[in-house]
């Protein structure tokens, strides 16, 4: 597991803010207990490294657990979150694997997260370090079409109106949007996010030199956003601005030439 550092200019903050992005851990029953503990130890090791000299926020951007998770898996995930919470405030937005869980099971898991002091951003926002962090939970139809024999055909598009329907209008800046899927980047930028934190595509699963990631979970070849820092210039009636998106390759799932990673982001005035 590796760490990647990025520096992002963010207008409106009085001082630098360091955010550690953790995405797509995918704790599941397919991991042995020893494997899960090794993942936890590696995450904590890199978190401690990024906390030097200071770490202000830890952002978990979805799919912490897989949809096949059982109570033992939830216990390990909660244990990790509790240890991270002792290092810095933890914000947690949901991915498609969380929202695929049975409703009662998900509700209990999120209650346990909140009791552990985790800020669950399920289509809500929180102000930390003079930044408004908003967690976007997209409808399941964005990821999978249950009405079609081919689950990945005719998916619901991510639009500015859909984002607004989930989290309201963007009226406060600076705003960092936690949006599990990066495929809606243009819509997030149009909505008004200054920075977007995403994961979901697992770095493109297999990465080729000079090409990048080759496949998304939606069975699309060569997705536009797989890993790294991207930007879009948005022009409105008054001025233009730049939105930037950090896409983490994540930690879990099969990968090739594509190391698991945590991303250390320094927001600078």
Provide structural commentary:
The chain has six helices and 14 strands. With 269 residues, it is α/β, with parallel strands linked by helices. The chain has a single domain, classed as Purple Acid Phosphatase, chain A, domain 2 (4-Layer Sandwich). Strands 1-14-2-3-4-5 form a six-stranded mixed beta sheet, with helices on one face. Strands 6-7-8-9-13-12 form a six-stranded mixed beta sheet, covered by helices on one side. Strands 10-11 form a two-stranded antiparallel sheet. Helix 1 links the parallel strand 2 and strand 3 (57-61). Helix 1 (33-50) runs parallel beside helix 2 and helix 5 crosses helix 6. The model has no long low-confidence stretch (mean pLDDT 93).
CATH topology: Purple Acid Phosphatase, chain A, domain 2
Distance between the termini: 30 Å
Mean pLDDT, rounded to whole units?
93
Number-wise, the strands total 14
Number of separate domains: 1
Low-confidence stretches: none
State the helicity in percent bands: 10-25%
Largest sheet: 6 strands, mixed
Strand content: 25-35%
Overall CATH architecture: 4-Layer Sandwich
Which sequence of SSEs, written as H and E, runs from N to C? EEHEHEHHEEEHEHEEEEEE
Which CATH class applies here? Alpha Beta
From the spread of the alpha carbons, the general shape counts as globular
Q: How are the elements arranged and paired?
A:
Elements: E1 2-9, E2 17-22, H1 33-50, E3 57-61, H2 71-85, E4 90-93, H3 96-99, H4 103-115, E5 119-120, E6 125-128, E7 131-136, H5 160-167, E8 175-179, H6 185-191, E9 195-198, E10 207-208, E11 212-213, E12 228-235, E13 240-247, E14 261-268
Helix pairs in contact: 1-2, 5-6
């Amino acid at each position: 597991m590796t760490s990647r550092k990025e520096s992002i200019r963010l207008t409106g903050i009085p001082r630098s803010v360091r955010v550690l992005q953790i995405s797509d851990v995918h704790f599941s029953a397919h991991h042995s207990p020893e494997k899960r503990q090794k993942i936890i130890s590696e995450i904590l090791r890199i978190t401690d490294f990024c906390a030097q000299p200071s770490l202000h926020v830890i952002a978990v951007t979805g799919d912490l657990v897989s949809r096949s998770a059982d109570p033992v898996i939830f216990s390990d995930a909660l244990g990790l979150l509790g240890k991270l919470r002792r290092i810095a405030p933890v914000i947690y937005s949901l991915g498609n694997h969380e929202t695929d869980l049975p409703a009662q099971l998900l509700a209990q898991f999120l209650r346990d997260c909140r009791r552990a002091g985790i800020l669950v951003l399920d289509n809500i926002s929180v102000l930390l370090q003079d930044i408004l962090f908003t967690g976007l939970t997209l409808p399941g139809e964005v990821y999978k079409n249950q009405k079609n024999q081919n689950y990945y055909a005719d998916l619901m598009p991510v639009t500015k109106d859909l984002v607004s329907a989930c989290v309201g209008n963007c009226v406060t800046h600076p705003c960092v949007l936690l949006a599990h899927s990066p495929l809606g980047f243009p819509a997030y930028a149009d909505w008004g996010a200054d920075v977007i934190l995403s994961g979901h595509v697992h770095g493109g699963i297999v990465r080729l030199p000079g090409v990048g990631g080759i496949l998304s979970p939606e069975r699309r070849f060569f997705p536009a956003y797989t890993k790294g820092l991207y930007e879009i210039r948005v022009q409105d009636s008054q001025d233009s601005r730049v939105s930037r998106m950090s896409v983490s390759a994540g930690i879990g799932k099969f990968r090739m030439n594509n190391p698991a990673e945590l991303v250390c982001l320094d927001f600078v005035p």
